[in-house]
Amino acid sequence: VVPVFFDRDKVFRVKPQDEKQANIIKDLAKTNELDFWYPDATHHVAANMTVDFRISEKESKSVQSVLDQNKMHYEILIHDLQEEIEKQFDVEED
Amino acid sequence: ISGRHSYAKYNNWDKIVAWTEKMVNKCPEMVSRIKIGSTVEDNPLYVLKIGKDERRKAIFMDCGIHAREWISPAFCQWFVYQATKSYGKNKIMTKLLDRMNFYVLPVFNVDGYIWSWTQNRMWRKNRSKNKNSSCIGTDLNRNFDVSWNSSPGTNNPCSDIYRGPAPESEKETKAVTDFIRRHLKSIKAYITFHSYSQMLLFPYGYTTKLPPNYEDLNKVAKIGTDVISTRYETRYIYGPIASKIYPTTGSSLDWAYDLGIKHTFAFELRDKGKFGFLLPESLIKPTCKETMLAVKFIAKYILKHTS
Q1: Does residue B1 carry a pLDDT above 50?
Q2: CB contact under 8 A, A36 and B8
Q3: φ and ψ at B43, to 5 degrees?
Q4: Dihedral (Cα; B108, B109, B110, B114), 10-degree rounding
Q5: Which residues from chain B sit within 8 angstroms of residue A91, using beta carbons?
Q6: Chain A residue numbers touching B197 (CB-CB < 8 A)
Q7: Least CB–CB distance from B4: residue in A4, A87, A94
Q8: What's the gap in Å between the CA of B75 and the closest CA on chain A?
Q9: So what's the pLDDT on residue B28?
Q10: Which of A19, B79, B218, B290 is deepest in the core (most CB within 10 A)?
Q11: Which alpha helices (DSSP H) does chain A contain, by range?
Q12: Does A40 sit within 8 Å of B161, measured CB to CB?
């Protein structure tokens, strides 16, 4: 099995302000492969909750434009996940 | 990843197994290793018993139930190291270990942890095969026999929180629940370690109803988070799972509580999302040091307030 790489995968942090925006995230999860980091799964997403999810670079642009169109509050926590995966080993061997 | 085991680094499963052997050899009078079962892929599930006497109060601690939450197993290793190193030197730890035992499960979801090292760093579940589905794995923290029908978790094997075909369907879950049931007389507290989001949580997850000893649990969690902040001013929040985060079913915390262990806590360790599951190794030690303060406080409280 070939290991999975996450080159230029992104982690978004979105703050749905109301039920409508929470449902937009749930709809995005139906048509895109969102890996929820917080909460654990799409059906826990609710208004006024911080929602973190990982998404591939390919899908991130369309997701970002949906968030923009709906004037949703979001930030990109991680711009290239693979880079962060490699950077986590930042302590030298003894 | 070459090199030796290090408390300042993330260690793969082979290094952790070797480390368990080293700890037993180094402190045979204090540390014993118990094989409580094996995983779906036949890896051993090891609990380290820290303490000298069978008949004492005990605290059960598990780490690594979700594969990608690497800071969690790092903390369990740190705890065992600190407990054995400071016995006879640190007054509180000496008193704790003279009067109670700790059962530490350094990695609960061994197969998933190995997978997160070798194939997919973002893996969460175990690696069991699901009937009639090509999707792999069960979320072990939805597989416990509690509130199974009250608000059915997801039955979709492809979901990251798939609860499994039945309560305790997973070998890992069964091994842990059997061990805890066998030692129920002595186990006075259950603490499980996850990441991320810096929270100290207690029951219930499956209902917003408050547990009968809510005041007690809330007080312990509040002081525990205060103690954490004394080291590096790290801010944790605390409270019942269902109201603090969201309702979840089948969790180990609720199962242990309803079994009769009336002090059960879940730590969501650092951080709050800047790195998420990819907490850099340079933050392992500060995270472990501050968490140690809270765990020692909880242990002291259990020692004093449980019969």
Answers
A1: no
A2: no
A3: -85, 150
A4: -140
A5: 6, 8-9, 281-282, 284
A6: 38
A7: A94
A8: 16
A9: 96
A10: B79
A11: 19-31, 57-69, 81-87
A12: yes
Tokens representing residue B99 in the block: 């009067």
What is the Cα B64 distance to its own chain's centre?
A: 6
Question: Distances from the Cα of B12 to the Cαs of B31, B113, B175, B270, in angstroms?
Answer: 21, 8, 22, 20
Angle value at C-alpha B288, between B296 and B109, nearest 5 degrees: 100
Q: Write down the pLDDT at residue B151.
A: 65
B253: CB partners within 8 A, 6+ apart: B190, B192, B201, B202, B203, B205, B241, B264, B265, B266
The C-alpha angle B74, B181, B303, rounded to 5 degrees, equals 65
Find all residues with CB under 8 Å of B293, minimum gap 6, and list them. B227, B228, B230, B231
Residue range B156-160: average pLDDT? 95
Which residue out of B170, B172, B268, B290 is catalytically annotated? B268
Going by C-alpha positions, the residue among B275, B119, B212, B48 that lies closest to residue A78 is B275
As a whole number of angstroms, the distance between CA B20 and CA B52 comes to 17
Note whether A44 contacts B248, CB cutoff 8 Å.
yes
Residue B281 annotated in active site = no
The angle formed by the CA atoms of residues A54, A70 and A16, to the nearest 5 degrees, is 55
Single-letter residue type at B213: N
Rounded CA-CA distance B123/B273 in Å is: 17
Query: b/e per residue, B199-221, with b = 16+ CB within 10 A?
Result: bbbbbbbbbeebbeeeeebbebb
Write the pLDDT tens digit of every residue in B267-288: 999 999 999 999 999 999 999 9
pLDDT at B192 over 70: yes
Question: B222-275 pLDDT, tens per residue?
Answer: 999 999 999 999 999 999 999 998 899 999 999 999 999 999 999 999 999 999
pLDDT at B293 over 80: yes
Q: Look-up: residue for tokens 């380290």?
A: B48
Cβ of B9 within 8 Å of Cβ of A11? The answer is no
